[in-house]
Fold:
Amino acid sequence: MGADNFQYHDYYLVDELLTEEHKQIREMVRAWVKKEVSPIVEEACQKAEFPRQWIKGLAEIGAFGPYIPQEYGGAGLDQISYGIIMQELERGDSGLRSTASVQSSLVMYPIYTFGSEEQKRKYLPRLAKGEIIGCFGLTEPDYGSNPAGMITRFTDKGDHVVLNGAKMWISNAPIADIAVVWAKDDHGEIRGLIVERGMEGFTTPETHGKWSLRASATGELVFDNVKVPKENIFPNIKGLKGPLSCLNSARYGIAWGAIGAALDCYDSALRYSKERIQFGKPIAAFQLTQKKLAEMITEITKAQVLTWRLGVLKNENRATPAQISMAKRNNVHMALTIAREARQIHGGMGITGEYPIMRHMMNLESVITYEGTHDIHLLITGLDITGINAFS
Ligand code: TGC
Ligand code: FAD
Structure:
């Protein structure tokens, strides 16, 4: 990739709604992304490799468990800080943000919220330091949008349980030391368990051939009569609301993150359009180019305001799951549309790794699918406003 000349855009002065601490966090994460991510992300994607050195850096900038209390190793920050971190990481690459959001929202959050004191003390500080990496197993080969139907289950054997089944499309699986797994017990009730790498019968085959999120490791979780100690089961949660609560936190982070990808595409398109001369003029001088750019900054600005407000509600514990769904759906679609338009502005150069556009565009095809597809989030809004369930 060429030099990272990214400039932030804040058309409605949303910065005035942030604290000095928020802005300092943003500068610190942005500087780390410029120094450690931008120079190697293109090659990592081309080779479909997750650069493991990012783990130490992510831990150092506080991207693992930003809002987990300090007594458990987290940074004890507010929800807007968490969002800002996700935005800056996804400005670098959605796969990088994925690694941090899975560790924070899908592994540390459930351990902190549903775990026993022993589980919290055992895992959270090490996850925050990046000494261990976690993943989150909900989706199965036959149950994606409808996780309630999952068939992975465990049987009570006295002091331990025996786990059987498989999870698919799991971010971080190939590099994970632990997996937060959602499975049914003997009564058909969904429970959460912590499965550790090294437990006999537990494997994590990597998923190859992705055209999207290539700098993020994705895999399966396969459980073949895995003996899991009972103390690894979350004591404080039963039912689908357990994993779905974790998704609220991750979807919130994605709503912020998508703005980062959109800003990177817009910024690159704006700069390119002023430099690229056709018909004796910069292409920015043509009305059709200006229409694209003006619509991009309009949509980014709307998303920035929406997401800031969601952050305030989240800080006050008032953000509803449906409000989070609306922001995730809107912002990811906005970012994907902007990536496609930015690709047009870059002409042929837009398909090369010289610019970040095509990489963001391909990544966002996953982001619009995972954590609930675009249409599932629409139906969540539909249910919220009509009271009628249109899922089944
Ligand atoms: P439903 O009957 O509506 O709900 C079952 C129970 O759950 C409660 N609930 C929630 N609780 C907390 N937060 C939410 N967002 C919740 N939504 C529902 C609900 O109140 C009920 O509680 P209770 O006490 O009555 O039992 O469930 P349903 O089976 O009809 O499904 C609803 C649906 C379709 C919306 C849901 O299953 C869904 O969201 N599907 C999408 C699946 C999904 O998002 N999977 C994501 C997998 S993880 C992932 O993609 C990680 S990518 C990570 C990365 O790399 O960044
Ligand atoms: P399906 O559920 O089969 O959906 C296919 C299509 O049907 C979609 O367009 C969907 O909107 C539509 N559809 C389904 N039901 C309805 C309905 N009722 N009404 C209207 N349309 C409907 N999962 C994890 O558990 N952990 C992870 O870490 C994780 N990481 C991922 C990383 C990547 C790169 C990807 C691609 C996925 C990841 N996932 C993960 C899985 C992800 O959450 C699922 O892919 C997603 O929930 C959709 O499930 P599915 O792929 O089975 O699609």
About this structure: Residues 259 and 332 are 8 Å apart (CA to CA). The first strand starts at residue 134 and ends at 137. The longest helix spans residues 241-275.
